[in-house]
Amino acid sequence: MNLYIDLAYSALKCKTLHSEFSFPNEIRIAADPTSLQMDGVPIYDFEGNKLVIGEPVTGQTLHQRDFGFLMLYAPVLVAHAIRLSNVHYSSITGLKIVIPFENCKNGDRARLIERLSCFVVDGREYRYEVDCLPQGVGVFLEYLHEAKPQDKTESGYVLDFGYNTVLLVKYEDLKPRHADSEQLDQYGISRVVARLGKELHKRFQLHMPLIEVNGIFRNRYLDDCGERHDISDLCDKAVNEYVAQIFLELMDKNAEKFRRVNKIIIGGGGAYYITPAAIPEMLRKMVHIMPNQPEFANVRGFMRIEEEAANKTAMQSA
């Protein structure tokens, strides 16, 4: 069995044959590991540190918005994903890791494959066949499954809205074209989180790491001094400002590209916050917003294409 993981900057999206889940890649060095273990919080012994993942516990927060951070902690993040999958680690034969487009084209891909092929967490050795796949292309593959376009000459762009990046993946004749695709760093939903962090500071006089603000953004409430505050108004304000600004910038950079294609597909976690009304009017008729939990589109798309290939091989062998 393969485990598919979208190794993203704010949360990992995971899929097996039987489950689909995500968790924040918020990593903390446990301040009191013994007490946490008594409370049932998973503690990971990894490269000299006792680490907690995705839990609001006391301890130094480890988080950086760069691929080096993901590379460094990928083994323990994968170990946590395996725990949450409820599949025994020995039953998993391969890891399919979806990573940012640019990192698939440089030496990062080979280094990540090597790092995850054999690693140790909690004194246990994990060995897997590993492949790295480009973010955005999975969204396109899921679009083919969901929308089932009939025009075989269709061309377009996938806009994969992530936490740190927006990926523009070009396709022609319903086939992705890597040469005409690009990755726009610092264009992602982290801009919304940064805006929200400033608003929280104004209203509540709180200073928090962006990874914590991201969790508050997803929940749309803030717990402070024993009181739960609904901050939907602040979240909506940050999103609306972001969407308006991001499409102005995208149109400024890519207006001619967009006018020459038939379709613009919007996926990734950021697609939750983009409505047709937010799209520039001249583009609305050509936009397809992924409708079903778009944050999982990358892992779904790659799993589907590999399942179809395996089924085709089985039928040919029968």
Would you give an account of this structure?
This protein is α+β, with helices and mostly antiparallel strands and 318 residues long. It folds into three domains: 2-134, ATPase, nucleotide binding domain (Nucleotidyltransferase, domain 5), CATH 3.30.420.40; 137-188 and 253-301, ATPase, nucleotide binding domain (Nucleotidyltransferase, domain 5), CATH 3.30.420; 190-236, no CATH class. The chain has nine helices and 18 strands. It has helices at 33-38, 67-85, 101-105, 108-117, 137-147, 190-204, 210-219, 232-259, 297-317, and strands spanning 2-7, 11-15, 20-24, 27-30, 44-46, 49-53, 59-62, 94-99, 118-121, 124-127, 129-134, 156-161, 165-172, 175-185, 221-224, 227-230, 263-267, 287-289. The strands form five sheets. A five-stranded mixed beta sheet has the order 3-2-1-8-11, sandwiched between helices. α2 (67-85) runs parallel beside α4 (108-117), α5 crosses α9 and α6 crosses α7 (210-219). The longest helix is centred in the last third of the chain and has 28 residues, at 232-259. The radius of gyration is 20 Å and the shape is globular. The chain starts with a strand and ends with a helix. The mean pLDDT is 90.
Shape label: globular
- Number of beta strands: 18
Output the CATH homologous superfamily of the largest domain.
Answer: ATPase, nucleotide binding domain
User: What fraction strand?
Assistant: 25-35%
| H/E element sequence | EEEEHEEEHEHHEEEHEEEHHEEHEEH
Spans where pLDDT lies below 50 across 5 or more residues: none
How many domains, in number, for the residues?
3
Distance between the termini: 21 Å
